[in-house]
Amino acid sequence: MRLLFSELPGRRERHLRRKHDNPLFPEDERVLTQEGLTEAQRLDHEELVAYIGDLRKLVGEAVALGPHEQSDRILELKERLDKAYETACRLADDQGPNREAIRKLVAVIMKAVWKGAGNDSLAQRELEQEEAARKAHYELLEYPLVADLLDPDSLIREGELLPVLLSADRPEFEAAVTLFDPAQLLALCEQGETMFGQVDGVEPPQEARWRLDALTALAESIKPN
Fold it and tell me: What pLDDT sits at residue 31?
């Protein structure tokens, strides 16, 4: 039976699709039914509806900020907007408009923060570093796998991390591996060699071996002396 996938899936459907017919996962996890897929899509939709309601309230709070608002209040809203942006990157459907709205609100808030910094050169350098870090973070979140890995309630269990990484397409793989430190990368490489020796039933895709080789090379290149 042909499965009815979403064009722009949410995090639950994405994770089911990662495991579907994937020889790097246990055989009983590779099978995807339409019933299981439909349930994941339903839960993804419920999450989206709840998010839209929460985002409207958050936007209302941000728009209502007064010109003399306390700095603690401004920074608290900025942090919540950053988290809302991360959440939007994990949701189903086109979240481009919501993400753009959040970016604009964060930019407005940052103007107030810059104004509060005045001529303090140290504060200005810290703000420059923060904005550069936010820009890089937002760019990484363009990759759904990165957003899913950074999810506080990530569906990717510890034992699934390596198969997920090795199954990712090249751009997502290269973005995702930047989230790990050298020790974590080395541990993943060791797990990979063990996993390839245990895969049964279907020959692992050659792309997965290439990903593991790339992971090993990266781990070796940044390993502390």
Answer: 94
- Measured CA to CA, the distance from residue 154 to residue 107 in angstroms comes to 28
- Kindly state the helix (H) or strand (E) to which residue 29 belongs, with its residue range: helix 27-30
125 CB-near residues (< 8 Å, 6+ apart) = none
Q: Tell me how far apart the alpha carbons of residues 126 and 116 are, in angstroms, rounded to a whole number.
A: 13
C-beta separation of 91 from 10 below 8 A: yes
pLDDT band at 1 (very low <50, low <70, confident <90, very high): low
Nearest to 212 by CA among 198, 199, 193, 187: 193
Separation of alpha carbons 30 and 167, rounded Å: 13
Q: In this structure, are residues 166 and 212 in contact, taking their beta carbons and an 8 Å threshold?
A: yes
Question: Which amino acid, residue 24?
Answer: L
- Distance between CA 46 and CA 37 in Å, rounded? 14
Residues in the chain: 225
CB 33 within 8 A of CB 17: no
Residue found by looking up tokens 């990530």 in the block: 154
Regarding predicted confidence, which is higher, 51 or 69? 51
What is the pTM assigned to this prediction? 0.91
pLDDT at residue 200 greater than cutoff 60: no
Q: Are 163 and 195 in contact (CB under 8 A)?
A: yes
Q: How far apart are CA 148 and CA 86, in angstroms?
A: 9
